[in-house]
């Protein structure tokens, strides 16, 4: 099961690269914020349809959840605007490696401190090496 989830996350990451490549030209034509809006508008419709047909009817109410859990709704559009603006200027590869570096750095801290209710996973030398290699990739792509 873990292997399948790893493959799914790799496929999801590939999808994000495609999204970054699409958003740049779209933002150049209609504006960065309109491009971002289109992604979330279409995503909202698709998610609603999935919820309508596949969501359990006995799920706890969305409105009873703590407010901090809705922060992703604020962070998502910021991320997409960054993709839309950065990808055409610095390239999709550089954009995605930069995003990856930021994600891994923050993820190490979230795991280490067990933030947001996640299990504690201490930062160790291997995890630090992984971050260093990602930063090296960022430098190598920047020089290329």
From TrEMBL:
Residues spanning the membrane: 33-54, 74-105, 125-142
Tagged with keyword Transmembrane: yes
Alphabetized UniProt keyword annotations: Membrane, Transmembrane, Transmembrane helix
Pfam families: DMT_YdcZ (PF04657)
Keyword Transmembrane: yes
The protein's name in its UniProt record: EamA-like transporter family protein
């Amino acid at each position: 099961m873990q292997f399948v989830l790893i493959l799914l996350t790799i496929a999801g990451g590939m999808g994000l690269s495609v999204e970054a490549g699409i958003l740049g030209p779209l933002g150049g034509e209609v504006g960065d914020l309109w491009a971002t809006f289109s992604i979330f508008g279409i995503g909202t419709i698709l998610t609603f349809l999935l919820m309508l047909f596949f969501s359990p009817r006995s799920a706890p109410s969305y409105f009873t959840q703590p407010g901090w859990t809705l922060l992703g709704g604020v962070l998502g559009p910021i991320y997409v605007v960054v993709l839309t603006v950065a990808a055409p200027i610095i390239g999709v590869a550089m954009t995605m490696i930069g995003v990856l570096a930021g994600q891994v750095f923050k993820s190490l801290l979230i795991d280490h401190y067990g933030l947001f209710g996640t299990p504690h996973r201490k930062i160790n030398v291997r995890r630090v090496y992984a971050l260093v290699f990602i930063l090296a990739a960022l430098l190598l792509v920047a020089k290329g």
